[in-house]
Every structure is written in structure tokens, then in C-alpha cells.
Amino acid sequence: xxxxxxxxxxxxxxxxxxxxxxxxxxxxxxxxxxxxxxxxxxxxxxxxxxxxxxxxxxxxxxxxxxxxxxxxxxxxxxxxxxxxxxxxxxxxxxxxxxxxxxxxxxxxxxxxxxxxxxxxxxxxxxxxxxxxxxxxxxxxxxxxxxxxxxxxxxxxxxxxxxxxxxxxxxxxxxxxxxxxxxxxxxxxxxxxxxxxxxxxxxxxxxxxxxxxxxxxxxxxxxxxxxxxxxxxxxxxxxxxxxx
Length: 243
Fold this sequence. Notes:
This protein is an alpha/beta fold. It has helices at residues 18-21, 31-46, 63-67, 73-97, 119-127, 145-155, 189-195, 202-210, 225-231; strands at residues 11-16, 50-55, 102-106, 115-116, 131-135, 160-165, 170-171, 183-184, 186-187, 215-219, 237-239.
């Protein structure tokens, strides 16, 4: 797949946490934050990058946490999937207001608000310059949206999984707690698994490792960072890649 001039990656999957859409509070939907993300995504799409997005739902409800309060786990996970649909619809609307066409696909059938995920249809939309938002995780309980991101990135032939966070990469300990935490700019998949680094869950990391899909962990809140990531500039922490 040849990339537009100046871009290292032609087709990418962006994994956004639900908390990111909640802004500084990390809960609910912060409209200015969503608008800022949408403008950045639209700018990169106009450069010729094909962008698929998987949103988490933690700003509204986390199925695993809700089940710990006594709710049945599978039902809690379905509730979490619906939270990701709300986030995807909000971001889709903002991207279209920024002037780029966008579509929402869901792993659960909710045809009155979004279309069911069909791999070839999603690929065709990406080729046409549409941003494709992939909601409702894998459609199955007990699987995280990180795993959904790894799965969809491989299904759609993406060249990299962009894991957006609130910090500028992967550290050997929590930089919010430990001022001496060391940033790890290059890691292998096995580094992440063996050291128990909290980047993505083990299923997602293993899926990327088995299919040699690199993961770039970076700070989405930095101005222009999404464009820098797609251009392949030095940024964040790269997992895999040349392994």
C-alpha cells in the first residue's frame, strides 16, 4: 500500500479511550475536547491518510467495573459496548462538522443509528476518504476495546495501531506517581508482556505480535501529534515495528 507523499502510514487505526473524550475530568463527553480531536483527525484525513477509529466507553461506563458492583458481567459488558456507540456517534458528528465524511460501524446491530460492521464495506469507505468509526468492541462480552482495536486493525489491513493516551509514551512505572519513571521509546511485544506494562491488555498485544502490527503509543493531546504520528516522526513509544 503506497502512502501519500510525506506520510509514513497510509491506513491507520486510532484507538481512543473513552476517558480522552471526557476531557480533563475523564467523564461524560466534553464537547470542546471532542471538537479538537475531530479537527485534528479531519486535517490528517485531508492529507490522504485513511483513518479507522475504535473508541472506548470508560467515560460513560466500564463493563468490568460495573460488574464488580454486583451486576452480571456479560450484561455489564453489553452496556459498555453501547457506551462506545454513544462516543462514536459524537465523534462522527464532530468530524463531519469539520468537513470530512465519516461513518459509524457497530459490532452490535443498531441499524437505526449506525451500520453493522462489514469488513469490505469499511475498507471501501476508507478508500473513498471516509473516516470509519468502529463501535461496540468485538460485539462479545469479556473482550476489551483494546482487543477490538487490534482485531479491526488487522482485519482492515492497517499499517499501524495508534494508541492515544494522556502521556507521551510508555514508561517503566507510572510517571504520574514516580518522578524518576523512565520513558521506553522502543519495545518489543515480549517486553510489554513480560514486564507487565499497562499499555494494552495481553490479548491485544499478542494479536498484534502474531500479525507483526506495530503499536505507537503517543499523547493525542499534544497539538499536531496525530499528524506527526502518521508522518512517522519521532514520537511516543513504538512497540514492535522492525521485529
